[in-house]
Here is the input.
Amino acid sequence: MTSADLFDLTGEVALVTGASSGLGERFAQVLAANGAKVVLAARRVDRLEALVAKIRAGGGEAIAVELDVADQPAIAPAFDAAEAAFGTVTILVNNAGIDGSSPPLDMTPEQWRNVMSVNVDGVWFCAQEVARRLAAAGRPGSIINIASVLSFRAARTLSAYATSKGAVRQMTHNLALELARYNIRVNAIAPGYILTEINRDFFATPGGQAMIKRIPQRRIAEASELDGTLLLLASSKASGYMTGSTVVVDGGHMLPAD
Here is the structure.
């Protein structure tokens, strides 16, 4: 089997949440480029439609579905739309998330609940929805949750975010255990600092540059540096015996200091 065969996703249907920008946008393009039919889900439909056009221009297949993962009743209709267009979703990338930065003494109940509703509840209910449909259809599948290096460590002003990503990591392990009998694999990617349109300006500041110097590789990653990990976890040919894993991609950020 060649590497192209190993990561060929022809016949798969992938739904990516938070696909309108950043990592979600990149994930959708990579999955489509490797043969998957892709459902782009996010709140900003105008940006999704532009990405759909780009994927189709490159020979891929994609549709856009409006979805706020914090709105639990909206999740099933999004999967209905995916099935109507392409069939059962076999790959779910739970990418949608917010950081909710705030010192803990200043954080309001509304801010806390907003972070948890997107980063934890949204991940859970999307995973539950795809798992139910896969089990009913008797189809194998892959759920890929997006955790963070903050699943393992702390950071100032990001208590809610770190707590939510810790929950995602533990959720990944438990769902992997529960869903293995249905041949549904559940894994997570824990990225370190990845350059996106949201943080690009910050990393050009003195504070951002100081943060980069604390990374052993002395740099932040491009979104493309997650492509291989994404395809590994998405492809049953490449990772069929892999479930319950959290793959850290962080330039050595998690390594213990001297």
